[in-house]
Amino acid sequence: MKTADVLGTAVGNTFRSRTRTILTILAIFIGGFTLTITTGLGTGINQYIDQTVAGIGAEDVMTVTHEQADAGLDSGPTEYDPDAVELNGPGGATAPGRSAIDPITADDLDMIAGIDGVESVEPSKRVSVDYAQVGDGTPYTMSVGTFVPGMEVELAAGSQPDLDATANEIAIPVDYVEAFGFDSDADAVGATIELGLTDAVGGTHVVDAEIVGVSEAGLAGSLGASPNPALTDALYEAQQTGAPAAQAERYGSAIVRFDPAAGDDATQALKDDLADAGFAATTVEDQIGAFKTVIDAIVLVLNAFAVIALVAAGFGIVNTLLMSVQERTREIGLMKAMGMSSGKVFGLFSTEATFIGLLGAAVGVGAGMAVGLGLGNVLATTLFADLPGLMLFAYEPLGVLSIVLLIMAIAFLAGTIPAARAARQDPIESLRYE
């Protein structure tokens, strides 16, 4: 019997005991369905986290500040340092416990650039806008975030600010659309916004910019307006008007580019070298790593329950095929008497087990994906409507294929016991079996 004949016979024999096989497939279906749902949940949440933190920076960028002890809420009064600068988080929010730090100077930038593993370094220019106004409308306070290479805001309308453009461009938070008098998010795109700010000697400056996008709120709420580098430079230059030259070269932090492909050890070595030089470095992974670890741990526990269900289904396969071997003892004896090798007999029954696993996987994974995507669409417009872009369940082709292969592997392993028993049978004794 050729290999193709073995495969055809195995598929044909699968439903010789239809009720027993269907019940076994249903058991596999439960495990496959559960594993698909839990895996999709983990993938969807992690994709949303990655999408949200794209507004913070890129994986090849780290933010560097001067190393200093955190000033906790219970640490008592902090001595005033006239040379310190404010350290602001995304959207201009002051970082708790670290509202003032030693400034990054031009000498510091040169020192950082000379550290092994640093591909480039540039200062992070923090700007403080007094108000934002569209036309003759009401002026509103608005925080303007610091540009970080690799940033991509989640858009409700429009496009990302062009990082290479010489014109001033900005993406405003969706919260300001109605306040500025626009009828819709798309209506705001293309309008001109005026940004007013005060310089170092108390003078007032107004910088115009084109609204090219409207950004959605993320997990942490609105992160403020997102300017392109040209607008950041224009605002910073206006803000520093009248300031001493030495003060103009004092920054809250520096942006360092490195090669994440070099591996975690190289990245940690770079952080250690920066720490030895008196600097603290933070990557996007540092900010979200712990959160993603918790999500992955929860999903792993849920997946464990699904695998337990699959193992239980494996015992069903063992039972189904053992009974099939017993019922087909004379048939096995006849096949071996006609020259079919023990290996082919083993392959016949193990293929039956694998095919049962494939059927259960196909039904379970297909149903899991359908339910997950359907439920995700419903929740995205109801319970999670305030979290635009969140699709609670997401599936990647490689992940789905991995689930199917895992179920088939479990089915194959379960089928080895009855397949081995069939392969060991003596043809003469089998033919005498009643």
TrEMBL record:
Gene Ontology CC: one annotated term: plasma membrane
Q: Any idea which UniProt keywords this protein has? A: Cell membrane, Membrane, Transmembrane, Transmembrane helix
UniProt keyword Repeat present? no
Q: Where in the cell is it found?
A: Cell membrane
Predominant subcellular localization, coarse grouping: membrane
ABC3 transporter permease C-terminal domain mapped to chain residues: 304-427
State if tRNA processing is listed as a keyword.
Answer: no
Query: Could you tell me which residue ranges the MacB-like periplasmic core domain spans?
Result: 21-268
UniProt-recorded Gene Ontology molecular function terms: transmembrane transporter activity
Q: Membrane-spanning regions, if any?
A: 21-42, 297-324, 345-372, 392-414
Q: Which residues form the signal peptide?
A: none
What membrane topology is annotated for this entry?
Multi-pass membrane protein
Among InterPro entries, the record links this protein to:
ABC3_permease_C (IPR003838), MacB_PCD (IPR025857), Macrolide_Exporter_MacB (IPR050250)
Domain of life (superkingdom)? Bacteria
Protein family membership = Belongs to the ABC-4 integral membrane protein family.
- Identify this protein by name: FtsX-like permease family protein
